[in-house]
Amino acid sequence: MVARVYLVGAGPGDPELLTERGARRLAEADLVLYDALVHPSLLAHAPNAEHAFVGKRAGRHAERQQQINDRMIAAARAGKTVVRLKGGDPYLFGRGSEEAEALAAAGIPFEVVPGVPSPLAATAYSGISLTHRTLGSSVAYLTATESPSKDRSSHDWTKLATATETLVIFMGLGRVRSLMDLLIEHGRSPETPAAILSRASTPDQRTLVGTVATLADLADAESLLSPALIVVGAVVTLREQLRWYDKGPLFGARVLVTRPAHQAAGLARRLRDAGAEPICVPAITIAPPQDAAPLAMLARSLDSYDWVVFTSANGVDALFGALASQQLDARAFGRTTKVLAIGTATAAALERRGVRADAIPDEFRGEAAAEVLVAALGDGIERAKIAIPRAEIARDALPDRLRAAGAHVDVVTAYRNVARAEDQARIAELLRGGDIDVLTLTAPSTLRSVLDALGGDVNVLASVLIASIGPVTTEAAIAVGAHVEVTAATYTEAGLCEALLEHAARAGRPWQDPAKRRARFRATFGAAT
Does residue 56 have an active-site annotation? Predict the structure, then answer.
């Protein structure tokens, strides 16, 4: 059985520019063949596929391309659904048409999923409009690197130099001087505005603005790296008015998000919206309790408690998982059992299950929850029965305070926070390698895991800005000798991001050093760049 091959455009760099159809095809893939400039996080859309890097190296393009064609054809003939994931759009200077020709010749069915073309995204993210009613009504795209099999260039510079008001040159970073000389030689004014857009739509984006006469000297002084586009035309003058992306308050920062994988997306989106590059590596994963019997028993007896206290969304998920395994649902709480949720995220997790929290303390910590319950129960607290399904290792401030007030408290292990060796190795590599500007900590358990990854060497954390989700986590970090610069006033991921924005507004953006950003870009996209 011959399967289908999908030629999918990944867009120019920002992983959120992948199309919905592209994400769906990745989810269906058995094999993903991806290029050097495809953002690594896009591979998460294909969790069940084999991921194979097929980025080309200088001087070996023809040989490498034939290998890619052969591998696509062989995999499809073996019945595998193949995604060929390409930067930008497959058919815009991406050799996608050559790959489609090879598939057609071999009788392999294929589909092309367009991607956001790099010139459209690069100019938009850099604050340049490709066309403008008064500055430019025509655009030409060309590549500075043509097929080595051609006897001579197909570019007619006598026409190209002045044919359109806007000119976009691909793959010309190594030839800026000769390209600008060609334009001047063939009639383009040396005073024409020109720009180089490097690594556009990523937090490593650089935009260099000059003229046709000055651009080469400016580029030599900056040591820009590929991928880059050269834009020539009056539309370049719009940049200062239209730039938005590199004005982001966290633009250029690489932020290590340590939340469990299933909870990292929200914080990552907020950081990316602020211009940062979130690096998601879970410090902990959520595992079931080693002994599931106590949680199962609690699920069967919820209506015998006066209050059930949820300290996290993970506790909600764990308890409802235990209910579902016994063919039970939210009705198990009965008519009289009340529910307290510590934090709005926990309350939201309950609402998704059809349960509205009776109480949410103003401060999202155990001490505040205890005070709410003590006040609500009043003189009846000595007769009260309270259940707390929570993590195996957690602070005891809440149950201790309730027991001291006379309540009967059952603390039940609902889940465990465990660290995976491969995640800890990656965390250590990032922190020790200087590849991280900001470390986010969302619980004492994530701090413990990060320190375990570093072999207990807290000094490594001196090179990063530590941002904590709240005072409990901050106190845990201070207790081990870490310096916390940012503590959220509201103990949520939204509060954490807001605290980072406020810090950046006060203290500036120390992560803007160009040399560091170049090294980090290589770390993200690989040596092929």
Answer: yes
Phi and psi torsions of 88, nearest 5°: 65, -130
pTM: 0.79
The residue type found at 269 is R
Domains and CATH numbers, the chain: 5-115 (3.40.1010.10), 120-246 (3.30.950.10), 254-284+420-525 (3.40.50.10090), 287-417 (3.40.50.10090)
265 has pLDDT over 80: yes
Phi, psi angles (nearest 5°) of residue 398? -70, -60
35 is catalytic: yes
Least Cα distance to 501 among 270, 343, 345 occurs for 270
Average pLDDT, the chain: 90
Region 387-409: mean pLDDT is: 92
**Which of 399, 382, 381 minimizes the C-alpha distance to 390?**
399
- Convert the pLDDT of each residue in 313-341 to its tens digit: 999 999 999 999 999 999 999 999 999 99
Which one from 56, 338, 385, 516 is the annotated catalytic residue? 56
DSSP class of residue 110 equals E
* CA atoms of 60 and 54, how far apart (whole Å): 12
3-state secondary structure 245-293: HHHCCCCCCEEEECCCHHHCHHHHHHHHHCCCEEEECCCCEEECCCCCH
Residue of 31, 39, 15 lying closest to 68 (CA atoms): 31
Name residue, tokens 């510079």.
157
Catalytically annotated residue among 14, 30, 35, 435: 35
| pLDDT at residue 438 in the model | 93
